[in-house]
Amino acid sequence: MTEERPPRTVEDPGGSMSFFDHLVELRKRLINSLIGIGIGMIAGLTISKPFINFITRPMIDALKYNHLDPHVYYTHPAGYVSLYINLGLYLGIALAMPWVLYQVWLFVAPGLYKHERKAVASFIVSSMFLFLCGVAFGYLVMLPQVLKFVIEFANTGPIKPWIDINEYFSLILAVLLGLGVIFELPVVVFILSLFGIVTPKFMLKNFRYAMLIITVVAAVVTPTPDATTMLIFMAPMVLLYFLGVLVSYMVVRKKRARQLAEGQAS
After folding, report:
1. Is 228 exposed, middle or buried (0-12, 13-18, 19+ CB in 10 A)?
2. How does pLDDT run across 107-137, given as a tens digit for each residue?
C-alpha cells in the first residue's frame, strides 16, 4: 500500500495553486532572482578592486616566505580590467545567492507540507554552510600550503616565478570551488540514505575502499606532489566521510522509527 499523506490544513495550504498560477509565480521568482543577481553584480564590481588584494594575499605571503618579489603581474594590456570584471561578477553572484535561494524557497514552499518545508529549509542552509566551510578551508589552509610548496620548489634554481594574475585567479577559483563541492559530501550521503541507497553499516564496512578513493582523488586534485599537502587535503575528506556516516545513521534511525510507528498504528 502507498503511504497516505496527511490532509492539509489552513496552516498547511500547499497544492491549492493552479498550473497557470504556478507559471505566474515561477515568472515572478525568476524576475526577482535576475534583479537580485543584477544588483549583486553592481555591488560586486564596487568591491572588486579592494577584493583583489584579498585574493592575492596567499600568493604574496608565499613569495615573501621564499624571499622573492612580492608582486603578481598581468601580461595582457587588459588583463587587470578582465580580472576586475570577472571577480566582480563572481562576487555579485555570491552576494545574490541567498536572495536567489530565498526566491526558490518561496516558489516551492507553498507546494510542500509543513514537515517537508522544514526538511528543504534545513537542506538549503546546510548545503550553503558546508560549501562556505569548503571555501574557507581552501583559502585559509589549502592555498597557503600549496603556494608555499610550488614557489619554494621553483626557487632552488635560476628560474624565478613571474605570476600572472589571471592564471593565478583561475587556479584559486578551481581550488576553492572544488573544495566547496567536496564539502557537500554529507549532503550527498543524506540524499542517498533517504532513498535507501547507502546505510551507515555499508559505509563503515566499505571504509577501506572509501579511503582508496579519497587517496586517488587527493592525488589527482592536489596541485602539488608532496605528501604533506596531500594529507592536508585528505584529512577533511576523511572527517566528512565519518560525518556522512553519522548523517546516514540519523536518517536510517528516523526512517525505522517512522516505520515502527506506522506498523503499530495499523
Report:
1. exposed
2. 877 766 776 677 777 778 888 898 999 999 9
Q: Identify the residue whose cell numbers are 621564499.
A: 66
Helix (H, G, I), strand (E, B), or coil: what is residue 170? helix
CA atoms of 23 and 253, how far apart (whole Å): 38
* Mean of all residue pLDDT scores within the chain: 82
CB-based contacts of 17-25 (< 8 A; 24+ apart in sequence) = 17/110, 17/111, 25/107, 25/110
Does residue 63 contact residue 161 with C-beta atoms inside 8 Å? yes
Per-residue buried b or exposed e for 85-109, using 16+ beta carbons within 10 Å of the residue's own CB: eebbbbbbeebbbebbbebeeebee
Q: What's the grid cell of residue 84?
A: 576586475
Per the CB < 8 A criterion, the answer to whether 78 and 117 are in contact is no
The domain containing residue 218 runs over which residues?
184-266
Shared domain check, 249 and 212 = yes
Same domain for 132 and 198: no
Same domain, 75 and 24: yes
Cα–Cα distance measured from residue 222 to residue 224, given in angstroms and rounded to the nearest whole number: 6
Please tell me whether the overall predicted TM-score, pTM, comes out greater than 0.85 for this model: no
